[in-house]
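README, section 4: Worked example with a bound small molecule

Sections 1 through 3 covered apo chains. Here we extend the same pipeline to holo records, where the ligand is supplied as SMILES alongside the sequence. The molecule in this example is adenosine-5'-triphosphate. Nothing else about the input changes; the structure line simply encodes the ligand pose together with the chain.
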Amino acid sequence: MGLFKKKKKPQQTLQQILDTPLYPTPEPIIPYEFQANPEPYNTAAVTELANNIKAAVAEYQATLPEPEDKLDDEPYEKVYFPATYQIFDEPPEQTDKEKPPNKDRVHNFLNRTAQIPCQIAKVIHAANISTYHIRLNNPMDLKNVKQAVDAMAADFEADIIRKQSRGYGAHFAIAVPRQKRQTVYLKDLLRSSEFCDVYIKPNSLPAVIGTDDENNPVCIDIAKLPHLLCCGTTGSGKSVAINSILISALSERTPKQLQLVLIDPKEVESIAYAGLPHLLFPVVTDMNKAKETLKKCVKIMEQRQKKATELGVRELGEETPHILIVIDEMADLMMTHGRQVEELIVRICQKARAFKMHIICATQSPVAKVVTNLIRANLPARLAFKTSSDVESRIAKGTNGCRELLGKGDGLFIHGDEIRIQAAWNTTAEIEALKRHYGIVEIKEPRKLTCKEEYMLAKLEFYEQQKADGYNYDTEKEKEYRQILSERGLLQE
Ligand SMILES: Nc1ncnc2c1ncn2[C@@H]1O[C@H](COP(=O)(O)OP(=O)(O)OP(=O)(O)O)[C@@H](O)[C@H]1O
Ligand SMILES: [Mg+2]
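The generated complex, written as structure tokens:
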């Protein structure tokens, strides 16, 4: 008989099994019974115990019910409300109201210097120009008017443009630039009834351009344009005008109604919008990425087309958001990718109206290589600012007339009619206000996992460990979980 009585191996309870660590630690802790035993350390017994524990744990886990996805677990959707004009700061009072340009001076010049007897019927002062409507005493003098206006332009040292007057017979009108121009503040136009008329229409994409030569707000429905080409030399006011369009559209349309794609190779203007929840992709400044982005837009358009066919409708309704693609400076893009980009833009343009996708392209070099015939044909609406030559003016809007514009937002808006406009002024303060209202989305964060997803990921980790340790595990379930998780984009390969 030995000195020590051999102890009977105790029966372990489930709780004890569960309290034991699942995986053997690098240095196994030897149970008390074995330590007390002077016999050599029984490796076989330890391994058996560890196996028993693992089996028991696996058995126990198999009995636990799988959690169900609860409604609360679903990532919630943010509800947005339109910002409206009220979020913007009040524009300053315009104190330095200039005296109306000299009516007598115009009258005297025509009557005395040019010897054309006439009366000034009406004068309208807009922000950039004053329009004089003139009635000739003798209709026969109409043929001398052109010469007289040229002489007056030389005398006034200003580009005076002769216009058709809206009266009958011996009427004409001239547009004389104001010496001190007025600023047209965006907020004043956002609260105008003209803007309201556009934004209350269902399915419209409202935007503010500026004021016309009679000081009336010019507000447009981008959905009807449906694409816009904006030309003008550097500093003529393209970016400011595009910002007015964007800010006014964003002030009335939430991310559910309007999604933006901003392409800005100059990396200056559009960066201010970074973080707005309306952005479909982060602001694109890289030329290669710009091409890829346009390709993605074409894909979205095809998906929309498919959806419309499935629904059996010709146009998509209010539940589909408008997508507005803005390219500030398309010259770089056309120079680097030329044909391909042209093709992508034209593809989007041709079918986009029904599928609610709109393009605004801007360029400071309206030359034939950048603004190709195809692009001109597909972007029918124009916003033309001052150009450096008549050739550029003809490419920008088909006729002369842009060279004489005054710059800084003095422009022509052409959609059917040609309207002389002063573009609305805005600053980054308005964009900041929009960001404060809609909130800023940093880099698209992965959404919160639902509790079932967390469970499946943990299970997969467990299966991996089992596999590494050479134990059996539920391969069917593993396959199923892998498929579900990879479909939801939650597995990193
Ligand atoms: N609507 C406006 N009202 C008042 N000032 C304006 C207006 N538009 C432009 N300006 C003035 O002209 C400057 C240049 O405007 P903007 O940046 O829009 O030019 P641009 O045509 O985009 O030039 P570039 O081709 O170099 O980008 C502005 O900083 C501003 O001082
Ligand atoms: Mg610009």
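What to look for in the output: Residues 183, 232, 234-240, 364, 408-409, 423-425 surround adenosine-5'-triphosphate (ligand 1) (CB under 6 Å). The CA atoms of residues 128 and 181 lie 5 Å apart.

Section 5 describes how to batch many such records.
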